[in-house]
Amino acid sequence: MEVQLAIKKLADWEIVNTEKPFLIAGPCSAETEEQTLASAHELRKIGIEVFRAGIWKPRTRPDSFEGVGSIGLKWLQKVKKETGMLISTEVANVKHVYEALRAGIDILWIGARTTANPFAIQEIADALHGMDIPVLVKNPVNPDADLWLGAIERLQKAGITRIGAIHRGFSGFDHSIYRNPPSWQIPIELKRRLPDLPILCDPSHIGGKRELLQSISQKAMDLNYDGLMIESHPDPDNAWSDARQQVSAASLQVITESLVLRQVKPEGINYDTLEDLRFKIDKYDNELLDILQKRMETAEAIGKYKKRANMTILQPSRWEEVVGNSLKKGRKRNLSDRFTSKIFKAIHEESISKQTTIMNGEPGVNGHIKKSE
Ligand code: PEP
Ligand code: MN
Question: Which numbered ligand comes closest to the C-alpha of 239?
Answer without folding.
Answer: 2
